[in-house]
């Protein structure tokens, strides 16, 4: 059986894909509806930091969610930790 993206707890929460000077940051948690948990936001920030370090090699960045649901919400559990 092939593991689906975002189902392995050890799998990265985001991945970066490149097409020339355009990078796509993919939130890869379709089972969680790509919810923006603190861990996901940290992973997105790390991806942006890595892309920024490339300077002019990256001219544009798209942020998308894996699967049918696109980054829908901040989960209630993350909001209650404030």
Q: Given the structure, what is the number of helices?
A: 2
Level-1 CATH class name: Alpha Beta
Order of helices and strands: EEHEH
Tell me the strand order in the biggest sheet.
1-2-3
Overall 3D form: globular
CATH topology, anyone? GMP Synthetase, Chain A, domain 3
Give the radius of gyration: 13 Å
CATH architecture: 2-Layer Sandwich
Distance between the amino and carboxyl termini: 39 Å
Descriptive notes:
The protein has a single domain, classed as 2-Layer Sandwich (GMP Synthetase, Chain A, domain 3), CATH 3.30.300. The chain is globular and about 35 Å long. 23% of the residues lie in helices and 22% in strands. The protein has helices spanning 38-52, 76-79; strands at residues 14-19, 22-27, 60-65. It has a 3-stranded mixed β-sheet with strand order 1-2-3, covered by helices on one side. The chain has 82 residues and is α+β, with helices and mostly antiparallel strands.
Chart the SSEs and their pairings:
Elements: E1 14-19, E2 22-27, H1 38-52, E3 60-65, H2 76-79
Throw out a few tags for this protein:
alpha+beta, 3-stranded mixed beta sheet, 23% helix, GMP Synthetase, Chain A, domain 3, 82 residues
Summarize the structure.
InterPro entries: ClpP/crotonase-like_dom_sf. The chain is α+β, with helices and mostly antiparallel strands.
């Amino acid at each position: 059986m092939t593991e689906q993206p975002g189902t392995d707890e050890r799998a990265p929460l985001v991945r970066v894909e490149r097409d020339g000077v355009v990078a796509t940051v993919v939130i890869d948690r379709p089972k969680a509806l790509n919810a923006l948990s603190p861990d996901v936001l940290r992973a997105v920030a790390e991806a942006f930091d890595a892309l920024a370090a490339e300077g002019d090699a990256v001219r544009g960045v798209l942020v998308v969610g894996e699967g049918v649901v696109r980054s829908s919400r901040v989960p209630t559990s993350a909001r209650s930790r404030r």
